[in-house]
Amino acid sequence: MDTNLRSFRREDADQVVALARQAYARPEEHVGNPVWPSREELESEISDWDPPATETLLVAEDGDGVVGIGGVEAGGGSPEVADLFGPVVAKRAQGRRLGSRLLAESIALARAHGASVLDAAIGTNNRRGRVLLERNGFAPRGPVQAFYELRPQDHRPAPPSPEGLTVRRANRTDEEPVFALYRECFPDGRFPEDWLQAGLDEGVVHLAELDGSPVAFLTIDRPDRWIYLVGVTGEARSRGIGGFLLSRALESYWGEHPGDLLGLATRADNTPAIRLYRGQGFRPTLLLQPYELVL
Predict the structure, then answer these.
(1) How confident is the model at residue 213, as a pLDDT?
(2) Domains of the chain as residue ranges with CATH
(3) What SS3 class is residue 107?
(4) Which three-class secondary structure state does DSSP give residue 284?
(5) Average pLDDT, integer, range 203-208
(6) Which residues have C-beta within 8 Å of that of residue 152, sequence separation ≥ 6?
(7) Cα 80 from chain centroid (whole Å)
(8) pLDDT at residue 22, as a whole number
(9) Does 161 score more than 80 pLDDT?
(10) What is the crossing angle of helices 13-25 and 39-46, to 10°?
(11) To which H or E segment does residue 289 belong?
(12) Mean pLDDT across the chain, nearest whole number?
């Protein structure tokens, strides 16, 4: 059966979500993107893409409808880095080399939008996905990442705060201490600093202070519904500060966005962080190996 590739359209959303659910349900098909359980989740994530998803996502279509999804998110936190979506192919269309076609077109899209690096993630049980990436020049980047999610009704709040600890929303006047915490906790510069600066302007950075001194911070991205950074200064660790900050930030977020499902990721060997997240009710969802392709 003939299959053609074309740009994503909004009317494809329900069929694309069905493909995302297929991949999410089968460990041998796990990918880092997309992970959309509903049309609402899809529309929320792509709502602020610039360039829009209609220019950077692809679908494969045959006479019976959409049978594949691929593409990239370009121009996000860092314009030099694009994130790979898929490729995911419907079970009935597997064996047509659609994964290879979608991946090749996705790489071309990343280049066309000025990216110099294309990031990807593949489930540790997704052997075919790993082989496809590596055949196309992708290399593993860093350790395996464990992914978790939490619904408000499953949250188990942290115990009362350590004496003298307060949590509040940070703003631009807190730029210096927040950046100092970021540089200490994430010396590899996980995100560009202008991304964090924008977070201060948008009120998505939560700051913990012990006796008035900044000791920890956390960011929650609303469109992605994702906790991207949780950092505690070395001198303040093992005192319950990270757990209390996470708990208060979650309650603050859900006060404005009730019912939202939130996710986060950490190194699969980061036992203290995993213990903290599981203790507050987060449940494991994916185990992914990051990859990157230098374009």
Answers:
(1) 92
(2) 4-142 (3.40.630.30), 152-260 (3.40.630.30)
(3) helix
(4) strand
(5) 94
(6) 250, 254, 258, 259, 260
(7) 17
(8) 96
(9) no
(10) 110
(11) strand 283-294
(12) 93
Give the three-class secondary structure for 82: strand
Distances from the Cα of 27 to the Cα of 171, 216, 257, 267, angstroms: 40, 35, 30, 18
* 140 vs 186, higher pLDDT: 140
User: Which residues 6+ apart lie within 8 Å of 288 measured at CB?
Assistant: 30, 31, 32, 121, 122, 123, 124, 144, 145, 147, 265
Angle between helical axes of 241-256 and 271-279 (0-180°, round to 10): 50
CA 148 to chain CA mean position, Å: 11
Mean pLDDT of 14-27: 96
Q: State whether residue 182 is helix, strand or coil.
A: helix
Does the pLDDT at position 78 exceed 80? no
Query: Do the Cβ atoms of 188 and 227 come closer than 8 Å?
Result: no
What is the model's pLDDT at position 48? 85
Burial of 172 (0-12, 13-18, 19+ CB in 10 A): exposed
**AA identity, residue 204:** V
- Give residue for tokens 């594949």: 68
Degrees to nearest 5, angle at CA 11 with 8 and 12: 50
- 61 near 6, Cβ under 8 Å? yes
Phi then psi for residue 109, to 5 deg, are -65, -45
- The Cα-based distances of 61 to 31, 101, 241 in angstroms read 20, 12, 50
* pLDDT exceeds cutoff 90 at 179: yes
Asked if pLDDT for residue 238 goes beyond 90, the answer is no
3-state secondary structure of 231: strand
